[in-house]
# Entry
Amino acid sequence: MPDRTDPTAPRDGEGRAPRRVRLIGIPMDYGQARRGVDMGPAALRHAGLAERLRRIGVEVVDGGNVEPPIRDTLPDRGGLAYMDHVVAVCERVYREARAAIEAEEMPLFLGGDHSLSLGTVAGIAHGRRVGVLWVDAHGDFNTPETSASGNIHGMPLAALVGLGDPRMTDLGTPGPKVRPEDVVLIGVRDLDEPERVQMRRVGVQVFTMRDLDELGVAVVTRRALDHLSRVEHLHVSLDMDALDPSEAPGVGTPVDGGLTFREAHLLMELLAQDGRVHSADLVEVNPILDNRNETARLAVGLVASLMGKVIY
# Structure
């Protein structure tokens, strides 16, 4: 048992999750109209992500950033006009993800907007079956044909199961990257009607905030993990707008009624306890909209819980 009088001793269960993690920043903001998420990787590093993980016994390698062209230097202006740029960056992310897995490292991708998951999941799922836990206020299940805004960060999950523009669905390798039955969404509370129709048609599992309210986080998380019991490797894609804006104000598309601080930590703790999480995205942190880096600091704490930090 740690000596609680020793200020250098691990506290609150820290030091129990040895693992080699590679940080990969993706400062991309092409997927949405609102600016600022390109600063997310820097905000997360500034919030002490690497140091926090090392404190719980995790070996951390910072792989730097996959640097996209600066948005203001591009001739296109918004929405689907950025498709080729998103795909080009995500192809590089795909290769980074594959390299991390081949090196037996756990890649932790720092965004950036959620369109980057086109590359992360494609790389993680290359040659193997992967379950995806998509923790998000939104479904991200639009296609260019169904999206009212044309914002690409609302399309990656649909593309990963094979729906949408071939430039996205065939990124890395041709065709779907994950099976619809291997996808679980948690925390959803803002869906477009076409998304709802497509999600029901293909059969992804969705736990809305009503489900969380009625059943509780523990029950929902265990049901999600039971649903994914057929797969050995899990990828967690955490959009910080899954949390309530009162907890995480620094996001571009806030929706009231989200996860509380403790609900989010319990979710991460239960995923860590399951032991199958081998990769993760941390996306949509927008320092411009934040309050003294509050959202990034919260995100760092959630990653620590996902990596095995416990209370006792």
Observations:
- The chain has a mean pLDDT of 93.
- The CA atoms of residues 234 and 273 lie 12 Å apart.
- The chain has one domain: 20-306.
